Predict the structure.
Amino acid sequence: MDYIVEPSRLFGKISVYGAKNCALALLGASVLTHDEVILTNCPSIVDVNNMLSILKLMGKRVLVEGDKVSISGHLFTTCIPKDIAKLLRGSSLLLGSMVGRYGSVNLPLPGGCAIGSRPLDIHLEGLNKLGIVVEQSKSTVTCFGTPKGNVYTMRFPSVGATENMLCACCLAQGQSTLINCATEPEIVALEKMLVQMGAKIDGIGKSVVHIQGVEGLHGTQFQIIPDRIVAATYLSCALASGGSITVNCNPKDLFAFLQTIASSCKLSIYKNAVSLQSRSLQGVGQVQTGPYPQFATDMQPLILSLAALSSGSVSIIKEDVFENRLANQCNQLIKMGAEISLKDNIAVVMGGNLVGATVKALDLRGGAGLVVAALGAKGKTRISGIENINRGYVDLAQNLSNLGAKISCS
Ligand code: UD1
């Protein structure tokens, strides 16, 4: 199945659902207790459903009622099932909680992907610092032992490694200090849920976090935060198409993105929503991706498309997080007539008219970027690889159609 997209303006209102990356981290943490953990506002997307299947196959009781998910009970195995684990990088978010709670975990390695090689060395070095034995083969990693508190400095504020270390430290013996932690909104949500479960964490949302290990954690209920990447996707679609929309989301999580697009539109920022009225596209200036609060790498394909559509403007985009992400996406946009010169992960984009073409979504956010480009291009665009988009978006085509987009599946 492909998306067929024609240029069309977006108007109206949309609410974004819970964030994939938050849901995956919280589902990983649910293993830290056998009590019931209830997550509300949980998105029904392929990656989340796969994570729920993994939990079920390992023995957890999983109940889904609309956007409410309940997880309870014990694991009867510490081997993460290979076939499903390989489908999503998020399966690695079970490392810290499983070793913390059960003293053992066997993870089939998810492997490289279109955006970069994504090694697990920081996760494993951190667990090793807690006294965990790590054994790696070509296809799996096994960790075992009882975590003991320690001080660990991450060489890079990795989102996943921070999440795994937070989970492993909660039940460790003694105190741990994590230095150079990631501070993304999804990390803050995880820290808050862990505290609700009885964890002792000092420094929520900070890059240095102290965790006093406790004997056990208990159940809780927690609301998954709105998906900031999905919010940025709808705003970008509206801007590319010259439309006007209101997106219910958490604007403070979108600060760097909103600053980047501000010269091309009129923005009204409310407590729980952003309204955007398009003006003419002015390019995106100079953007460099990096750990939060810097510009999010997952939003980079969106603004690359906006830059390519900004006639008469020159934009410079530097991708500093994932090594293959920028080149892959530039190659797809070049098929649509984009003028981009790329060197050392820096793209110089001469904005102009894009024309419909046959392109491929090589990864989740790249696919969303192509939808943005297609809405503002002249003529019809066929986007293949939409299974990559479905991993992270609930009903993207239907929601865009409801806002007036000409998008269909064939
Ligand atoms: C998470 C998000 C992803 C987002 C990324 C960066 C989830 C499920 N996914 O991915 O959508 O794009 O954060 O905001 O939450 N690295 C290493 N060694 C490690 C770990 C990471 O070299 O052990 C490198 C990666 O290859 C990458 C960079 O660090 O170049 C950032 O990765 P990281 O922050 O860990 O991203 P993820 O947690 O995989």
Notes: Residues 155 and 180 are 7 Å apart (CA to CA). The two ends are 5 Å apart (CA to CA).
